């Protein structure tokens, strides 16, 4: 028969490095086979100290200020002061028999990654019954502080001869997992279905019950803490307890935001870009954000990493094998061994999140992804209710990072979301869309067509409620983006007729109608149309329409003249598009639903009161090479904090969060569309500090 034993093993749950602990009081043990046939494990739960840690950050190999590389990122962060990131409510303990006497950093993961699949030798579940949980980041120093008995069901009897067991833990699963996890393989491959934060997961201030699991088997502390191994025999009584430790990490990650100090209730953004059509013609302020592509699918309970690749531009092959020297799959470290002078060569690996293999570039258009992400990258983002205002007055949560002396505002927890190198595209990667407001100054000017002439000095009629357009244009020498007063002007500007040279009033004839003062010949018309810009879709379609009218023309007849007009072009469009184009004299009447079709069909961006949107894709490892995608560059990994510092803008963003015709799920995250300057950092919580974001 099985016998009862008392195991008093101090199991320190360390979320980062070290910290204080507190008691599990008034809790309940879940047993089996009535109340017998059990041993008891005394568990001490401890998490990183409450508040920013005082331990020095590691020296980041990334000295250029981008998000740090590999396992340790840019260093560590403590838990949010006074919040619930370290609260423990229930614990699952799993013991596996081993012939190893101790563990070191060289071999501490060998058992978990072995080919054998032993059954669980002992298991236990402890449920804190008070409802308040245990704040393991606070506590005292009295003897045995934080120690409470967890009843362990042993599968075989213990005698006087000690046996060694490796110890694994899952925290805050919310249920006893003994029937779901009966072997080592079932443990290491266990998948957490659904949320990784049981309560208020979308509310940083009140989030609670963070799912956690073992992330290593030895500590980095000096002097060293107990490894996750324990020697048990019948001699281990309450008066002679065995001791061990388990180290856990959260399955969630966190996004933190900071920005320039608000002045008069506004967050100013740096702006100085000669290539912007509004350079030195106004100022920008940060007003809101939307966190997009938040993974909502399952999460692997225990972190897994891939074999290495020798270039940061490589994909992981699906049949890749682990080579000697590679980190072990289960709980192995992230690797980013790289000398920037050798780019892109080095040694790199991937974190294998749930659905990593299924998230391919070829499958990004699959409709299933929309249901697996919150705020998925599609037209649903254009709902104004999805934009959150920048926290200005008494934000619910904030902290100061002593490394960079910036005050950060945690905005959301997210789940692990990692991708192969080529799959780092807008349809998969987690990012932020920032909303900004452009306020014109007295130097703000627009291009306007009036009565046969084009002026570049048009001004706003109202600086409080205003609209304007932007579109690309080729003037015969270079491509440029221009600011327009109305839609008709975009079409008129397509004609690259030099100022003072339109002696026959050709532009007026085409844009207004062929009156007697228009004396252009058929040759004049053909020459003008041939020289039209086609840099935006409105120019392109207008030119194509006019060319079609001329395709068989030999004479400039009255009938042909009636067709060779902007009005004729508008009348040839789809009925819904005609309605939009005909609002050129009442631009403020354009609705939000019409902004998308205008951009998609004509390449014209409509801005109301200077409001625009800027996409930023969150970096995990920064290869410091714009336009070159890197391994694990745009990914989210558990227990990491992604610090975003929004510093400035390069100009106007997009007219909508998701602009039809421009935004596509398969667009690579490394592209030319970056218009915001953001810096990211990540800590243990592993901190990853992205470079200052210029929108």
From TrEMBL:
Organism of provenance: Parabacteroides distasonis
Its lineage opens with: Bacteria, Pseudomonadati, Bacteroidota, Bacteroidia, Bacteroidales
Gly residues composition bias: residue spans: 65-76
Question: Which intervals hold domain Minor fimbrium subunit Mfa1 C-terminal?
Answer: 606-690
InterPro entries in alphabetical order: Mfa1_C, Mfa1_fim
Region: Disordered, residue numbers:
50-77
* Signal peptide stretch: 1-21
The record ties this protein, via NCBIfam families, to: fim_Mfa1_fam
Of the GO CC terms on this record, one is:
pilus shaft
Could you tell me the keywords of this UniProt record?
A: Signal
Q: What is this protein called?
A: Minor fimbrium subunit Mfa1 C-terminal domain-containing protein
């Amino acid at each position: 028969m099985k016998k009862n034993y008392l195991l008093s093993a101090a199991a320190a749950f360390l979320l980062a490095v070290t910290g204080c602990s507190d008691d599990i009081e008034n809790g309940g043990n879940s047993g089996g086979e009535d109340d017998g046939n059990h041993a008891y494990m005394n568990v001490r739960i401890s998490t990183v100290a409450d508040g920013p840690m005082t331990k020095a950050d590691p020296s980041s190999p990334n000295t250029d200020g981008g998000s740090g590389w590999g396992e340790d990122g840019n260093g560590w962060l403590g838990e949010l002061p006074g919040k619930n990131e370290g609260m423990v409510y229930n614990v699952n303990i799993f013991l596996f028999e081993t012939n190893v006497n101790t563990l070191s950093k060289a071999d501490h993961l060998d058992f978990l990654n072995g080919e054998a699949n032993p059954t669980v030798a002992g298991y236990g579940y402890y449920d804190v019954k008070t409802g308040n949980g245990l704040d393991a980041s606070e506590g005292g120093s009295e003897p045995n502080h934080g120690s409470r008995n967890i009843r362990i069901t042993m599968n075989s009897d213990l005698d006087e001869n000690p046996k060694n067991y490796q110890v694994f833990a899952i925290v805050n699963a919310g249920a006893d997992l003994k029937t779901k996890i009966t072997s080592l393989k079932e443990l290491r491959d266990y998948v957490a279905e659904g949320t990784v934060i049981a309560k208020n997961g979308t509310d940083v201030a009140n989030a609670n019950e963070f799912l956690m699991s073992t992330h290593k088997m030895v500590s980095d502390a000096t002097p060293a803490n107990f490894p996750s191994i324990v020697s048990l025999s019948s001699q281990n009584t309450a008066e002679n307890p065995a001791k061990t430790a388990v180290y856990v990490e959260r399955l969630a990650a966190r996004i933190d935001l900071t920005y320039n100090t608000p002045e008069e209730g506004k967050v100013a953004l740096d702006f100085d870009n000669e290539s912007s059509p509004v350079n030195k013609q106004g100022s920008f302020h940060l007003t809101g954000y939307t966190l997009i592509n938040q993974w909502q699918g399952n999460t692997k309970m225990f972190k897994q990493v891939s074999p290495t690749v020798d270039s940061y531009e490589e994909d992981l092959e699906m049949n890749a094998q682990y080579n000697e020297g590679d980190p072990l799959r289960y709980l192995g470290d992230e690797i980013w061994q790289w000398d920037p002078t050798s780019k892109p060569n080095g040694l790199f690996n991937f974190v294998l999140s749930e659905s990593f293999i299924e998230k391919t570039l070829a499958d990004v258009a699959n409709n299933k992804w929309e249901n697996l992400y919150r705020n998925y990258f599609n037209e649903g983002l254009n709902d104004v209710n999805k934009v959150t205002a920048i926290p200005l007055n008494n934000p619910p949560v904030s902290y100061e990072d002593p490394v960079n002396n910036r005050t950060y505002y945690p905005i959301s927890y997210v789940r692990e979301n990692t991708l192969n190198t080529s799959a780092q595209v807008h349809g998969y990667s987690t990012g932020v869309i920032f909303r900004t407001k452009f306020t014109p100054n007295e130097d703000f000017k627009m291009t306007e067509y009036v009565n046969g002439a084009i002026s570049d000095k048009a001004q706003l009629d109202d600086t409080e409620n205003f609209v304007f357009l932007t579109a690309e244009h080729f003037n015969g020498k270079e491509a440029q983006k221009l600011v327009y007063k109305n839609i008709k002007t975009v079409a008129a500007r397509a004609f690259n007729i030099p100022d003072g040279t339109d002696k026959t009033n050709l532009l007026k004839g085409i844009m207004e109608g062929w009156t007697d003062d228009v004396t252009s010949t058929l040759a004049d018309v053909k020459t003008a149309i041939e020289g039209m810009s086609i840099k935006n879709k409105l120019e392109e379609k207008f030119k194509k329409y006019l060319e079609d009218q001329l395709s068989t023309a030999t004479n400039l007849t009255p009938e042909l003249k009636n067709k060779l007009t902007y009005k004729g072009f508008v009348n040839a469009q789809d009925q819904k598009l005609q309605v939009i184009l005909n609002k050129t004299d009442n631009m403020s009447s354009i609705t939000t639903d019409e902004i998308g079709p205008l951009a998609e069909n004509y390449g014209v961006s409509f801005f109301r009161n200077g409001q625009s949107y800027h996409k930023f894709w969150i970096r995990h490892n920064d290869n410091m090479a714009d336009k070159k995608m890197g391994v694990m560059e745009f990914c989210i990994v558990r227990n990491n904090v992604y610090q975003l510092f929004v510093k400035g803008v390069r100009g106007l963003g997009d007219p909508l969060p998701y602009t039809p015709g421009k935004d596509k799920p398969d667009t690579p995250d490394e592209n030319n569309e970056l218009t915001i300057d953001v810096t990211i950092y990540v800590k243990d919580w592993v901190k990853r500090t992205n470079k200052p974001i210029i929108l």
